[in-house]
Amino acid sequence: MPEEVSKTADDSKKNLWSQILSDVQNNGNPKLPSCKQVLVLGDNECGKTTIVAKLQGVEDPKKGSGLEYAYIDVRDDYRDDQTRLSVWVLDGDPGHNDLLKFALSEETFQHTLVILTVTMTAPWSILEQLQHWASVLADHLDKLKVDVDLRQSRRQHIVKMWQEYIEPGDELDPASPMKRSSRTFGEGEDGLEDATSLPEGTLTNNLGLDIVVVVTKTDYIQTLEKEQDYRDEHLDFMQQWIRKFCLQYGAALFYTSAKEDKNCDLLYKYLTHRIYGFPFRTPALVVEKDAVFIPSGWDNMNKIRILYENLHTCKPDDYFRDIIVQPTTRKTINRETELLAEDEQNFLGRQQQILFAGGNNLPGPRLGESPIRSTPLGKATLDGSKVVSSPGGEGVLANFFNSLLHKKTGSSPGNSLVNKSGGPESLNEKAAMRSDAAAELDRLARGGKKPGPSSGSGGIDFNASDC
Question: Largest alpha-carbon pair distance within the chain?
Fold first, then answer.
C-alpha cells in the first residue's frame, strides 16, 4: 500500500513539471513579431526623414518622394531576439495621399502605430497640420473594409491602455493614488471599461490606432524668441492647444530636436514600449520648453489648465493663428530694367537741334589750336543742299559731315560702284572729292589761308573708306 501511494505521488509530480514546461514553451518569452510597422505623416520639410534616420541610427538621411520605406533594427536583450520594425513615410504632397493604401490596409491596421509630425520652424501652422493629417488618416480608415468587431476591439484597447496607465515608479507602490485610480476608474458593474466615463475631452476621436505626435526642430524656439519676440506665454499657448489635440486622439506628445539630440532616444524607447511591450521607466517631462514628453494616458484637462496661469494677454480658447501670427515676409524681386533703343533718325534730328541751338555761341579758334577742331559744325545743313564755304574751310568740312548723313543716289550708270551704304557713286566724283578735300586740308595746315569759293556742288559724298 505505501508503494502504491509513493508511485501515485511521483506520477503527479511528473505531470506537474510537464505542465509547467508546456506552459513556458507555449507562453513564455515569445519571439518578437515581424508584422509591426510605423506610419509617419506630415507636411514637407517638417523633419520626417530626419527623425526616422535618428531612430535608425543613421547620420546621413536620404530623402525620397511618394511613399518611402525604411526599417529599424529592434533587439530584445532579455529574450535574445531581434526583428525589423517597418517604417513608411508618406510625402507631404496631397497628391500622394492615395499611396496610403499600400502602407495601411485591412491586414496591417491592427499592427500599425502612426506618427504625426509637425515642426517648430512654422509654429503658426502646427494645429492646422495636425488636424489636416488626422482628417486624412480618418478618411482613409473609413475607406478600408476593416471588420467591425476588429475595429471596435482596437478602440477598446486604446481606452483600456489609457485607463490603465500607471506613472513609472508607482507600479511597485500599492498605496499609490495613480495606481489605485487606474484600477477602479471607468469600470462598470461587470468590470469592463466604460468609454463614456473617460475624463473631459479624452478620446473623443478614437481611431483605434496608437498615435504619437512629434514636434521637430524645437531648437528653433531660441530663434523665435530672439527674432520674433516669442515669450513663454506664446509657447504655453501652443502647448495647451497641442495637448488638447493629443487628448482627443489618445496620442502621446514629443518635442524633439535632432540638431541638439533631444528626446530622440526617448522616442525610440517609447515606440518599442508601445509596440513590443518593452519596459519604459521615464515619467512625463513638462519642465523644459523644448523637450516636452507626455505619454499616452498621463494627461488630462486639469493638468493642461496649469498652463492657463501664464496666459496674460490671450485666452486659452483664442483662435490659434490670432495669437501665433505668421510673420509677413517681403520677397525681393530682381527685375532687369528693359532698355529701349532710340530711333536713329530721331536721335540724329535731336542732335541737329542741339547743334543749331549752340552753333552761334561757339568760340573761334584759340591761339595754337587747329581750326579744324574749332569749326562750328552747326552751320552745316543736313538736307544735302549746297553749302557755301566760309573762312577757315567751314564749307568743305560741312560738306564732309553732311555727306555722311545723306548719300547721293543719282549718278550716271557708266562707271559706278556700290558703296557701303548701298548707293551708286561716280568714280570721277570720288576722285574730285579726294583732290578737293586734300587741297583744302593742305591749305589749312600751311597757315590757315582763306580759300576761295568752293567749286564743288552741294552734297559731296564721302564714305568711311574714302577718308
Answer: 170
pTM above 0.85, yes or no: no
Q: Are 84 and 73 in contact (CB under 8 A)?
A: yes
**What is the rounded distance in angstroms from the CA atom of residue 436 to the CA atom of residue 429?**
10
Query: Mean pLDDT across the stretch 150-163?
Result: 94
Q: Predicted confidence band at 179 (pLDDT cuts at 50, 70, 90)?
A: very low
End-to-end CA distance of the chain: 150
The model's pLDDT over 378-402, given as tens digits with 9 standing for 90+, comes to 444 444 444 444 444 556 666 666 6
Are 198 and 155 in contact, with CB atoms under 8 Å apart? Answer: no
Task: Pick the closest to residue 47 from 224, 264, 285 (CA basis).
Answer: 264
* Rounded-to-integer distance, Cα 55 and Cα 203, Å: 28
Instruction: Report whether 46 contacts 126 (CB < 8 A).
Output: no
Sheet holding 252-255, edge to edge: 67-76, 81-90, 37-42, 112-119, 210-216, 252-255, 293-294
**Residue from 197, 109, 195 nearest 149 by CA:** 109
146 CB contacts (<8 Å, ≥6 apart)? 106, 109
